[in-house]
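Re-running the complex after MR caught last week's input typo. The corrected sequence lines follow. Everything else is unchanged.
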Amino acid sequence: MEHLIDIVLLGLLMITGFAIVRMRSLLAVAMLTSIYSLLSASLFVVLDAVDVALTEAAIGAGISTILILATVALTSDEEKAPRHTPLLPLVVVIATGAALIYGTLDMPHYGDPTAPVHRHVAPTYLHDTPGEIGVPNVVTSVLASYRGYDTLGEVTVIFTAGIGVLALLGYRTRRRNSQGPGNRKLVVLRVIAKLFFPLILLFALYVLFHGDYGPGGGFQAGVIFATGFILYALAFGLGNAQRIIPHQLLRIMAAVGVLIYAAVGIESMLLGGKFLEYRVLADDPVTGQHLGIMLIELGVGITVVAVMLIIYYGFVSRLHSGDM
Amino acid sequence: MMDLVLDVLSWVCLLGGAIFLLIGAIGVLRFPDFYTRLHAVSICDTLGAGLVLVGLMLQGGLSLVTVKLLLIFYFMIFTGPTAVHALAEAALQSKLKPLVDDREP
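Corrected-run output:
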């Protein structure tokens, strides 16, 4: 049965991939990429990687679709006809694909318990997590504690991306805040958005603070939080959304998140441990781990929300029609 | 006996949902213009997915799974029609004319 689901999902992925290549309308391609992400998210659920699935669904199918649509709205929604024959690129792609497939031949079989990836550090993490960290979700303990340095790097990458978008797009303050198009026409959308906005934020907080026990964590929560605000901005206009979270506040928040993360590391150094060694944060090592993970997840969440909204504001403030 | 009734009911719902999804998919492919296709899509969102969810709820019995399915049902029933309505409204605003039959009856 599971094989059937795998085959259907992978088949749909392939069809979507071909459709993306064949399409000339970039608007349709944007929607197809969203479908592609949703299919990959389902595939991750089948593979029991629920945390990754949640991330893929929130980022791939949610936020990036909106950002791609905003880009398409800013540029052109038709792909230009290629000026040269696609023969050489085809050869390059086929050669690369063949080389990659050749490379996988030496890899251990899928699900092989003796594969190196299952014998290196994974058993230690699985074995030590209940005693050392006391968190049921091992993904969170690996991500936030054992591999805390990597996650700090990731948050810094996101922060840098936000700065990059700010530097490239900037942010245009409009003279008059548009309220979105014809108020009466949007009544249904606005009522439903009002109904769901608090629920989305509540769910984001749940994902953030429940990350120890279930799938979720700072990255997913940040993105879900940001989608809530984007929904609000779509229904009520950018001006109203900025009355809740102004752009200046976002810039500060993006930096504060990274700072919280790094400060937890430095605090643990001041208390006599190593950088990001959470167990010195409280008297009891396990409580210290909980506290540290909670704090850094909070930092990650704040940075992710801020950067996502900075990018969104950056794009949308350039759309003159002002209804996005 | 009760189990059998529930099972039959749930399968009726599941199959009904599948049929409505199929009808919606055929409609999207076969209908002539944007608005009629939207009409087909909205059947998938509400009746199709809704019946499948009800069928799954009957399978789940009184458990946490059913509560989650109920929540999904609630979200689908609200967001699906809203999305379709917003799409139709956007199409109308960008001056897409509905296809009308001009022939005399």
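None of the earlier attempt is carried over here. The interface with chain A takes residues 75, 78-79, 82, 85-86, 89, 93 of chain B (CB under 8 Å). Chain B has a mean pLDDT of 89.
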